[in-house]
What does this fold into?
Amino acid sequence: MKKVVNIRSSSGALSLQLQLKPWLMMLLLFCSMIVLMTIGLMLGSTWISPITIFQYVLGMDVGSATFIIESLRLPRMLVALFAGAALGVSGLILQEMVRNPLASPDIIGITGGGALAAVFFITTLGGIVSLSWLPLAAMVGSAVVSLFIYLLAWKDGISPIRLILIGIGINALLSALTTLMIVFSPLNTSSQAYVWMTGSVYGASWTDVGHMFPWVIVCIPLALLLTRAMHVHQLGEEVATSLGARMQVQRFVMISISVLLAGVAVAFAGGISFVGLMAPHIARLLFGKSFAVLVPAAALIGGMMVFSADVIGRTAFLPLDVPVGVFVSAIGAPFFLYLLYRNRHQ
It folds into this structure.
């Protein structure tokens, strides 16, 4: 079996060389996600058989199961998948751009900006303004804080190391401010804000799916279009500049895409941590270093992580519904310590 497939047009204008192994593994990963989705639709306080799920997919009438699948489980599943995919690709872009394995949107303040804005909205404006505006507040918070970090890191251009250090400092400040607001808020609003900060897709609706879908379906392909620029950046700033790369413009575009993806995930799923850190590393372990392959791989892995954590959260402790962020953090914190240990001599 050939390991590489050559695609060439008759005129020779188009010439591609595709490696089969990564894409076959990607197909296997996609099939695994379909299996997980089926299991997720089956499990819950009401058991739904796989035959019923299959009948629903074929458009057949499945009685009362239609409401459970269509109104309760399916939108929640899709929001979890979209949020995980967005965080996975956002973290991948940051790690590749700054060439730091510990970079992720929740560590350098992107997620923290959304969390601060959302908690401010819940504790201050929750009784005045409709909660339907909460996702917009979180996205604006992520964007404003990211722009602030970008401006602070600017000194004759953006240095990746400076960006990371300033981001970590700003994130610590944002965390302190967010905790302070929760402490001084009433009990009912503080509990709501705390659940949101932990990360939860409880109560997700088709409206949320519709709002998330355009951002995810546009930004992830845009990240793929940056493949060539990302590969040039990995050669180092001096080499990339000598090859004609517009480093600062490309970095701004990369950061913008990462912020948009992280912002939309935070807006609709709360402050889920560690997905942007773990998904890219798992993708590299399975698929190598090609950015064009890592983007869809990180998206699939991130989506599966958040979705699997949500299924565990809503089924393992019935009738309680544990926020998805609890289970992601339970895995992510030891993983972060492992990365620190592995990179201790760098």
